[in-house]
Specification:
62 residues; mainly alpha
């Protein structure tokens, strides 16, 4: 009985450690994404405006 009670918390701790490692990796990815986000946002807004103008042009032609 004692061996089982010792084994199960060790497994849960390993799981917690793995979760923390993945969370740290995600945090690093999020930081990198935030640094790269500003130029991406500009590109997206430019694409959206160009698409809007394209649809307006096609509507005017027809």
């Amino acid at each position: 009985m004692q061996i089982r009670s010792v084994k199960s918390p060790i497994k849960s701790w390993i799981g917690v450690i793995k979760v923390c490692e993945t969370a740290n990796k995600f945090e690093l990815q999020i930081k990198l994404a935030k640094q790269q986000l500003k130029p991406i946002k500009l590109q997206i807004s430019q694409q959206e405006t160009s698409e809007k103008y394209k649809t307006v042009d096609s509507n005017q032609k027809t």
